[in-house]
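Dear Dr. H.,

I hope your travels went smoothly. While you were away I took the liberty of generating a structure for the chain from your last submission, since the lab meeting agenda had it listed for discussion. I wanted you to have the full record in hand beforehand rather than looking at slides cold. The sequence, exactly as received, is reproduced here:
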Amino acid sequence: MCRTEDGIVQYAPLCIHTFRLIAPRKLLEAQQFNQQYHSYEEIQNVPDRLRWCRHHMGLMQKEVAEQIGISRGHYIDYEVGYVDYYPKEVVDRLADFYHIPVEDLLDEYNLFLYKGQGKMLKECREKMGLKKKPFARMLHVNPNTYRNWESDKKRMFKLTWEKYFREVLLANQNASNQNNI
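The corresponding predicted structure, in token form, is as follows:
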């Protein structure tokens, strides 16, 4: 800015501030969401944890998607909960981007997949001292289906995991924890 006073040109510094334009509705939604939870650790599901982290950093979905190298549509699917499986490479980038441990970002099912479905199944089966076929019968699943799960040829779906394997895994973990005490 400049002005003339008594024939003398005076200059004043000009400061330009830029602010991210966030639609008021979206801003209000983010504020309300983040006021519900003090920390992402209080949130039980992955989509809401992702949304909390994004709101906490003041970012838009498009910006997060660009930073981790996926399309905005894929990120929206993750955050809205249209998917029940989060690929390991995407989870690693998200955890790194949000500066949180992978274990804090994922739910039990996705942590099971992240740690290696086949490895987890095999460890549990071996701790119980069972071969594949008897273990499959115990879970009430086809032995061929079980073999495909243990060899990581097929991914176990979340509903199947909850129905057949979650209780077996949790019981096995509780037994391990009691043995360590």
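Two observations you may find useful: The longest strand covers residues 2-5. The beta strands are 2-5, 8-11.

With kind regards,
E. W.
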